[in-house]
Specification:
One of its GO terms (cellular component) is chloroplast. InterPro entries: Glyco_trans_1. Keywords: Amyloplast, Chloroplast, Glycosyltransferase, Plastid, Signal, Starch biosynthesis, Transferase, Transit peptide. It is found in: Plastid, Amyloplast; Plastid, Chloroplast. It is a single chain. The protein has one domain: Glycogen Phosphorylase B (Rossmann fold). The chain is built from 10 helices and 6 strands; from the N terminus they run H-E-H-E-H-E-H-E-H-E-H-H-E-H-H-H. The longest helix has 17 residues. By secondary structure, it is an alpha/beta fold. Helix content is about 50%, strand content about 10%. The chain has a 6-stranded parallel sheet, sandwiched between helices.
């Protein structure tokens, strides 16, 4: 289930509805997504002790397992910092060895890039909502992902998903440069950035385009935030499709 509950109204789909997880000045709709996300970013930066700066912020909210592409996550963190962005990771690993590896990485990053990187190696639902709201980009580089809710939650908050083309990530994220026809066939507008390979070059291809779009085409990027926030990923359309199939089957029998 979505963290917002099962949604049944298109009107609800344009609003960040879990306001209890966000500071009082932050809740926003698709109509004021730019102002809302700006306030959320500042709140996130202040909460985590990051520089209160106008920089692209990449959020990563995940379990730290091999399925989630932890080697790609590590690379993306360094790539974001190289592009003068900020990065926030929230997640923990069931494997103590992986958890300890990220503890060491966090110690390194907080020492060398304390104003632009923060790794929160725990489970924290309220913080996850603030990251979704405050991030410009949400990275989901899964090796496999049957469905995936992270990218859908990101879009509810007007954050742009950067994903690997696999499973449900491929089904719901349409690359702005390569998937216009595929999106049109689904009655949608392109809504994110994606890559094929499970390697550093793949992550770089999608992440660099996304960060460059933030730097070089802010008006276009902001319009994309509005677009993704208004896309309907509830059960509305699938339910209607099932009803049409049911009535068609009745006519056949």
């Amino acid at each position: 289930m979505f963290p917002f509950g099962l949604l049944t109204s298109n009107a609800l789909f344009t609003t960040v509805s879990n306001a209890q997880f966000l500071p009082s000045q932050v809740p926003y709709t698709s109509e004021n997504v730019v102002e809302g996300k700006r306030a959320a970013k500042q709140a996130l930066q202040q909460r985590l002790g990051l520089e209160t700066a106008v920089l692209p912020l990449v959020g990563i909210i995940t379990r730290l397992t091999h399925q989630k592409g932890i080697h790609l996550i590590k690379h993306a963190i360094w790539r974001t910092l190289e592009r003068n962005g900020q990065v926030v990771l929230l997640g923990s690993a069931p494997d103590p060895r992986i958890q300890n590896d990220f503890v060491n990485l966090a110690s390194q990053l907080h020492s060398t890039h304390g104003g632009r990187a923060r790794l929160c190696l725990t489970y924290d639902e309220p913080l996850s909502h603030l990251i979704y709201a405050g991030a410009d980009l949400i990275l989901v580089p899964s090796i496999f992902e049957p469905c995936g809710l992270t990218q859908l939650t990101a879009m509810r908050y007007g954050s742009i998903a950067v994903v690997r083309k696999t499973g449900g990530l491929y089904d719901t994220v349409f690359d702005v440069d390569h998937d216009k026809e595929r999106a049109q066939a689904q009655g949608l507008e392109p809504n994110g950035f994606s890559f094929d390979g499970a390697d550093a070059a793949g992550v770089d291809y999608a992440l660099n385009r996304a960060i460059s779009a933030w730097y070089d085409g802010r008006d276009w990027f902001n319009s994309l935030c509005k677009t993704v926030m208004e896309q309907d990923w509830s059960w509305n359309r699938p339910a209607l499709d099932y009803m049409e199939l049911y009535h068609a089957a009745r006519k056949i029998t």
